């Protein structure tokens, strides 16, 4: 049967863009549909604008640190509107760049949402188009808890467009987004209160990482309120009143904005999955690899080749809720295209995926945490760990600490996990991740000469 396209991709985010361009490079006739700006969560309202705001938030700390090095005290304040406009301009530039890349690759773009009508037909832009294969790459969206007044709270989608900088922001959540924005907003000059329903941030990460970041955040001045149960949010003349129960006591604070970041769910509404028999796995039947406490919500069920229950329909990225990170979505998308259009069947490897938390202090990690390793290997786990004041702070007087940690299999001497909290952790761990992925042993680390003086050298001098 003749189809309009060899491949129709729904969603022009990281996974969809990578897959469509790779498939087109093999000569496939490809179309992609996107109802929002091209680029997806990472480019439009995630990694990229977030990282720009992280950069912006670091200056206030640097101004303070500079005094210890002899610079006069800097009195500076942020022009929020300037920052938001500059970030938005960069996001739009990148989105256009992705449109140009699609054009260059010969991928046809439909600037409209698409929904599935049957296994080979989608409805897009008021038209019915057919395709031999369909790839779903629709990403996820933030969820809000069911608490009265939640309509006043924003999510990470809206924070990049706040008209004014909140003087005081309340943040509810304990994952990547909550802790990263707590540090960003604090660095930008807002007062920050972070609400945790448990007593620790970043469930699933190595315990030392959790503790080090949380201590660092609190020491900088972020107020962290633990073991709370959210009660309500109300609009009052002074702002937004957040009422909560702390252990057994009822309390409330007033803030100018409330950010909720308690997880994300696949964006499956109005997609028409039921029209094509594409199965969705639920919390109960989900059996997908999960790392770092990723949320367990319903997702499109896929096999190792990202194939859904319908043989010609595939899904990649956050809508499959495997590891919800941009480079993973890109990797899954390319593996799909190589397999289906490049005559090169291959699976994306979900092992040893490194990730970073862009807090202050920053953290990054690859491989197994100490507790994961002990669960797997029992006593056969050796931990190497150093916590120290980084050289930069010897003159600033700040009580900042850097943590480096290796998790090693005693039997094989293999390094199973590497973790770091401190300046440039993401940059350092990216290199260490290559070694961990290649199966390096502790002896290999020891045989590597350090770069002196640096923080990274601690990874090859741990005793
Ligand atoms: P996460 O899934 O990372 O974390 C959400 C956390 O919020 C949970 O672990 C839970 O912690 C807490 N929580 C859940 N329900 C409630 C509730 N009702 N009240 C209070 N707290 C609650 O979600 P995020 O929204 O932070 O991030 C979503 C995704 O975005 C992640 O999967 C991540 O992959 C991605 N991301 C990655 C980044 C990076 O790589 N740097 C940056 C930003 C996002 P607990 O159970 O301990 O209470």
CA radius of gyration is 23 Å
Which molecules other than protein and nucleic acid are bound?
NADPH dihydro-nicotinamide-adenine-dinucleotide phosphate
CATH level 3 topology of the largest domain: FAD/NAD(P)-binding domain
Q: Tell me the strand percentage band.
A: 25-35%
Helical content class: 25-40%
Descriptive notes:
The protein has helices at residues 14-25, 40-45, 47-68, 80-105, 176-187, 207-220, 326-341, 370-377, 425-437, 442-446; strands spanning 5-10, 30-33, 108-110, 114-118, 121-124, 127-136, 140-142, 168-172, 191-195, 223-225, 228-236, 239-246, 249-255, 257-260, 264-266, 280-281, 299-300, 313-315, 355-357, 363-367, 381-388, 402-409, 415-421. It is 29% helix and 25% strand. The chain folds into 3 domains: 5-141 and 265-341, FAD/NAD(P)-binding domain, CATH 3.50.50; 150-261, FAD/NAD(P)-binding domain (3-Layer(bba) Sandwich); 355-460, FAD/NAD-linked reductase, C-terminal dimerisation domain (Enolase-like, domain 1, 2-Layer Sandwich). β11 (228-236) and β12 (239-246) form a beta hairpin. It is globular and about 70 Å long. α1 runs parallel beside α4 (80-105), α1 packs parallel to α7 (326-341) and α3 (47-68) crosses α4 (80-105). It is an alpha/beta fold. The termini are far apart. It has 10 helices and 23 strands. The strands form 6 sheets. Strands 1, 2, 3, 4, 5, 6 and 18 form a 7-stranded mixed β-sheet that branches. Strands 19-20-23-22-21 form a 5-stranded antiparallel β-sheet, sandwiched between helices. Strands 10-9-8-14 form a 4-stranded parallel β-sheet, with helices on one face.
